[in-house]
Amino acid sequence: DAGITQSPRHKVTETGTPVTLRCHQTENHRYMYWYRQDPGHGLRLIHYSYGVKDTDKGEVSDGYSVSRSKTEDFLLTLESATSSQTSVYFCAISDSTGTLTGELFFGEGSRLTVL
Amino acid sequence: KQEVTQIPAALSVPEGENLVLNCSFTDSAIYNLQWFRQDPGKGLTSLLLIQSSQREQTSGRLNASLDKSSGRSTLYIAASQPGDSATYLCAVKTPDSSYKLIFGSGTRLLVRP
After folding, report:
1. Is B109 within 8 Å of B88 (Cβ atoms)?
2. pLDDT tens, A10-48?
3. How far apart are CA A38 and CA A27, in angstroms?
4. What is the separation of C-alpha A91 from the centre of its chain, rounded to a whole number of angstroms?
5. Given an 8 Å threshold on Cβ–Cβ distance, is A58 in contact with B100?
């Protein structure tokens, strides 16, 4: 299994509070992604990173920000959580340099409930 | 805009049956296509990756094919087992520098003993 750790795995918070989810990888992969998964919507890309300090928006980026200060860590922040951000959040990594094929590997997910 | 569709949304088969899951995409310009398995409450597990220049990939009882010209991929599962019950998702990777994946909504498979 790819070395991807998400924390926290479960979190319940109240509307208006800030929340940060962390993704840590031990594979030294260049690309890191944050997806959210919701019934009826499938998996949707929030933000992604193509290197340290290099990030870009996905299709559902409003209300979210990210940071990547080290290769191994990718943080997703909800500045002021809303009930519509209740979801399961997945981190993923990939790389296509050298012998790597561009295959995407996922973490176990972080379940966030915003009351 | 790339769109990925998986039909059927759900499938129930008796144990031992061979089955095919379908994935279609609207833009043939893809970098690769990947099949995943997701068990309830779990993350996604990569099953097979097919590069755009390849026609198929095999792993054990699984075989995935890719026909870019028709925008289709199939996942063939031989001799299905109850342990194969899960949701299967396909995703295509865009050929631009972002390497983003666009996901289908998945097929929920139940293999009955």
Report:
1. yes
2. 999 999 999 999 999 999 999 999 999 998 888 999 999
3. 27
4. 4
5. yes
